Request: fold
Amino acid sequence: MMNKLSLLLFAKIMVFGTVLLAQTDAVLKKEKRVLAIGSSGKQEDGEDCNIEIPSNAVAIVNGTIISQQAVDEKIRDSVFEIQQVLLDARSNELYLKINSDLLDQEAKKRKIDTARILQDEVIAKVKEPTEAEALAFYHENKSQLSGEFNALKEQIMNYLQRQRQSAEAKKLAELLRSKAQIQTVVDYLTLADVTTEPDRVLAVVNGEKITLRDIDKKLQPEIFKVQEQIYELQKQTVDLMINDLLFQQEAQRRNITIPELLNAEVTSRQKRITKKDILAFYMKNKDRVDANHGMAVDRGKITQYLKQHEEERAKAAFTEQLRQAAALEIFLAAPKRSIEAISTRDQPSKGNENATITIVEFIDYECSTCSNLHEMLEELMKEYGNKVRLVARDFPLQRHANAYKAAIAAEAAREQGNYWEYIAILFQNQRALGADNLKEYASQLGLNRKMFDEALDTEKFADKVKQDRMEALRLGLNSTPTVFVNGRRVAEKTYESLKAAIETAWKEVAMK
Reply:
């Protein structure tokens, strides 16, 4: 029998199983857009000296405007591909939101809570898998599993149980949908465009509206990722358009063609590739390239590669020279990550409790990258002293057989005041996290073994670990490690990126 908390968590994660992605016949309208490059920004004789900058300008190069429309036209197809991810995520979430609302409405109608409905209509109807069924599953999927059956048995049986519950949940969803009045008023552009108004109504379920804001609550990480990808695409495109304009303007100034300009400033200044250069490249990269220096054809390939590399270097140098001399303004703004409200109450922490900067780290003790990142965070703690506080939260991934038990063990060590010392041992022994190993590490720290073993064997802190995992899922996390600095997620897992995030957070705090 599941307790109420487990049922509610089940309702949030699995409400109604397999998602049928929304399909739509809407297509993007192909509009002719004017490329605003050329003389659109140039001052003519007799004009006012104050040139008004159009609101849609993304860059100005020596008085010539590059418009947003011009950039959009060049990247339209690529943006369309990127937006498919957001379309799928929003379609998925809308489907689940409709099901969740129907469940809530049904609970009100019956005057019971949703947990009771799930217990009666889903969980009670599911037959628990047998050990024989788990063993059959193990043999069918052995090539994709890591570990012996006895070590994986509980995990496999839980998986089979969830699969059966998902199937029953889907049946319940289809039943509720068949009796409901559901009007969907969504179109492709609404679900694919990150700039869509948040109050746009997507569906009406038995008279209750569902807006874009309602479904985007859980999708902020996916939305931001799409925004980042589109921004990077825009930035690269604008840079190329700026370079093209600079070549065009410089060629006009010299009264020559662009090929003649590039020949004079790039081709003629390229370093000549010698036999010594070819041999040096081969010796440095022979373990990484499929080539034989003794073969003329392979020497030719290396020569071609080095020539292309040298051409790119010379062109980049000339481009930078033109940029330095140009009157250049770029108005593209990178998207900012949203600030997440992440609870740090009753969590392992170290550093100044009143520090201005709070770092929250979601950890899987079986994840090697977590070990490396944790070392970086320890170094940053030393560097910033009492300005920074570090908080750890559990996110054991299901593909790691021992991560869940290790997280419970870490909490058991925290109960005795040795959390940070204990997880340091876990990170040093990531391939030995079985129950006996976890108990042995407690002995190494001199912990009360009776107290520790009981906490581990009874899974005393299982609810705490599960709550942390639910928080990670709420935030849209799907991998470890993941770090937040003052509520902003840090994308890159490098020392420099973490330090930059801390400095940015420090400046934001100082401006308040």
Remarks:
- The chain is about 55% helix and 10% strand.
